[in-house]
Amino acid sequence: MELFLIFFSSAVVNNFVLSYFLGICPFIGVSNKISSAFSMGLATTFVMTIASIVTWLIYHLILVEFQLEFLQYVSFILVIASLVQFVEMVIKKISQPLYRALGIFLPLITTNCAILGLALFIVLKEYNFIEGIIYGLGAGVGFTLAITIMAGIREELDIADVPKPFQGAPITLIIAGILALAFMGFSGMISG
């Protein structure tokens, strides 16, 4: 039950995009089409899950063991950059259209503060190995959920009669704010 609460909390209650406001760049930049948004969400989920495993191992088996905790930022950034390069190579090899659709936002996963935040939160919340994996998976699922919902709304806005002053970025930011408010409704359910 505790693992489910960690998953649900990271995916919905404490959604990285809509609660912590981490990962806003790809959230706004890649949420034009549902297909590319979902693919970006899956890529980010993969990186977040693998990053949670690798960073937990590095932190607990190397940094803590040798009293090098002060190197956690550098270590985590190197791990994240390596994982993103791996994902980019795989997507380029498997699907050229998806690779072109994600464009510059795929390498930007490296600088996605949600992934670094995830690694730091796992240490801060003192999760064990399994809890860290579940937290990473939940955070990735939450990112995918948020970006896919945003893409669906933005696709509908393409055919809606939006007043001229609100077209483009203004309506996108208003929708993001409304989504954040909607997700805040879950905050009374679980804390963590």
Task: Provide the domain count.
Answer: 1
* Number of H/I helices: 8
Radius of gyration: 17 Å
- State the end-to-end distance: 14 Å
Task: Tell me the structural class.
Answer: mainly alpha
Order of helices and strands: HHHHHHHH
Segments where pLDDT lies below 50 for 5+ residues?
none
Secondary structure tally: strands: 0
Proportion of beta-strand residues = under 5%
Largest sheet: none
Mean pLDDT rating: 91
Helix content: over 70%
What is the general shape? Answer: globular
3D architecture notes:
By secondary structure, this protein is mostly helical. The protein has one domain. 71% of the residues lie in helices and 0% in strands. The chain contains eight helices and no strands. The two termini are 14 Å apart. The mean pLDDT is 91.
Quick structural summary:
It contains eight helices and no strands. It is an all-alpha fold and 192 residues long.
Key attributes of the depicted protein:
single chain; 192 residues; mainly alpha; 71% helix; globular
Q: SSE layout and pairings?
A:
Elements: H1 2-13, H2 24-29, H3 34-63, H4 72-94, H5 96-102, H6 113-124, H7 129-159, H8 169-184
Helix pairs in contact: 1-7, 3-4, 3-6, 3-7, 4-5, 4-6, 7-8
